């Protein structure tokens, strides 16, 4: 089977453009790895893909870090690094091939360009180009991969217009260019590939040509307007503010809130004269106010729009994290160098304590998450079963549970590799003996009894709590 989505299309269709670009970026490295013998299994190809995505993320993050250094000084840059790296979610997920994290590097790059555009050192033409390019890229990413990002980019573009940083015609033109441009690029690819799979028994609502050509819009219609997102759970309206943001930001959240209150008080003249504390010579209140005026409406737009949707996940609002981290970094840098010498040791002790809490929480969450993907360990359980009791002509059935917890085509180590037109081998040969893999959501196969009735033989209890029925036919079932 050349296209996995033909038999198992997933929860909703997504565009093939981001994974295609990521695959093209990985292809030369994978080819080289197979040629020199470093890459010997498909699982190692998956690791390489995630390393490439993480590398792209690091590059764009570094671009933003350099911008922060130039705009606000080394102290703010250092605090931004410490806060960002001591948090759990973005570093842990940076290499995960979820749509949100495949576009997050582009979001970081757009933020960096926007912040640079407020510097007086660049020529006006360069400044205007950075703002236009940011609008173009954010619209491009939203239209193709995650439409919830539109709730961020539309208020952001309008803010730039109201601040007279971009004229309305330019904002509309570059936004339209990004939106319609990506549909023209990705539409033929997505239509060709999704028309092979849809309509599907699991997705009978997807029947129109436009749904194949623009799967992101079709998914929005399915989840939001048809109410199918509620199948994944309903959360209260305050969920992002009382659950997601505290988890994502950790100690950066109270720092950012305190910084915003402090900057507002400074703006209102409630703090007296002068408030330039170790942040590159730029007054703290002025710096925070500049960031909030630029990004505040966009943050409110995204958080407000997503709060109105019943089903909520932290990854839907992950794009706000760098902005809050920057405000928190400005706050931390000012508190670290506070002019009240009697208060300075206490402030520094408190800041160090907050980072230590971050690190402890991140370590604990990392430990839990390492053991939260039993499906990703099925390949090792099957290898152990094969070594203990070799079989030929094995057929392996995967139910939905292992597929939702880490199992993927890259973990099907014994499956045949499709013929490629690439002149060099980029995917290693399958392990011997060759197996046949099947994926199904048949409820009758969820239990050991149902598996036995379907002809599966033997049983083995996996080390990660995964039950595997083993014999000439194997079934990977569920957590036990």
Q: Care to describe what's here?
A:
It is an enzyme of class 2 (transferase). One of its GO terms (biological process) is protein N-linked glycosylation. Keywords: Endoplasmic reticulum, Glycosyltransferase, Membrane, Transferase, Transmembrane, Transmembrane helix. This protein has helices at 17-36, 42-72, 74-86, 89-93, 99-116, 124-144, 150-162, 168-194, 209-213, 215-225, 239-249, 252-267, 284-307, 321-336, 344-370, 378-388, 400-404, 448-453, and strands at 395-398, 436-439, 460-461, 466-469, 473-479. The chain has 480 residues and is mainly alpha-helical. The chain has two domains: 45-370, no CATH class; 373-479, no CATH class. The two termini are 31 Å apart. The model is unreliable at 274-282 and 458-466 (pLDDT under 50).
Average residue-wise pLDDT: 88
Widest sheet, order of strands? 2-1-5-4-3
pLDDT < 50 runs, ≥5 residues: 274-282, 458-466
Distance between the termini: 31 Å
How would you briefly describe this protein structure?
The relative contact order is 0.11.
What's the structural blueprint in terms of helices and strands?
Elements: H1 17-36, H2 42-72, H3 74-86, H4 89-93, H5 99-116, H6 124-144, H7 150-162, H8 168-194, H9 209-213, H10 215-225, H11 239-249, H12 252-267, H13 284-307, H14 321-336, H15 344-370, H16 378-388, E1 395-398, H17 400-404, E2 436-439, H18 448-453, E3 460-461, E4 466-469, E5 473-479
Parallel strand pairs: 1-2, 1-5
Antiparallel strand pairs: 3-4, 4-5
Helix pairs in contact: 1-2, 2-3, 2-5, 3-14, 5-6, 6-7, 6-8, 7-13, 12-13, 12-14, 13-14
EC number: 2.4.1.-
GO biological process, one term: protein N-linked glycosylation
Pfam families: Glyco_transf_22
